[in-house]
């Protein structure tokens, strides 16, 4: 209990621009709005896609959340 997913947040554009790495207990749904705080700024995004990869028997999970500006 209390497991967190470490997620890469990327812009849903041609370059897949990296936004941040966040730890989430619950993954957002597509269409939900999320806010990410970095330094002194807070950014609002809308989730457009989520990808989940399992890294075989040795590794853990990779979660990539794709977002657009809200």
Descriptive report:
There is one protein chain. The model has no long low-confidence stretch (mean pLDDT 91). A 5-stranded mixed sheet has the order 2-1-5-4-3, with no helix packed on it. It has no helices and 5 strands. The protein is globular and about 35 Å long. With 70 residues, the protein is mainly β. Strand 4 (41-54) and strand 5 (61-69) form a beta hairpin. The chain has strands spanning 5-11, 18-24, 33-38, 41-54, 61-69. It starts with a strand and ends with a strand. It has one domain (5-69).
In short:
By secondary structure, the chain is mostly beta strands.
What overall geometry do the principal axes of the alpha carbons give? globular
Order of helices and strands: EEEEE
Number of strands: 5
What's the average pLDDT?
A: 91
**Main sheet: strand order:** 2-1-5-4-3
Our measurement of the CA-to-CA distance between the termini, rounded to an integer number of angstroms, reads: 32 Å
**Main β-sheet, in a few words?**
5 strands, mixed
Number of helices: 0
Task: Give the low-pLDDT segments.
Answer: none
Please state roughly what percent of the residues sit in beta strands, choosing from under 5%, 5-15%, 15-25%, 25-35%, 35-45% or over 45%: over 45%
Question: What Rg do the Cα atoms give?
Answer: 12 Å
The chain-level structural class is mainly beta
Secondary structure: helix percent: under 10%
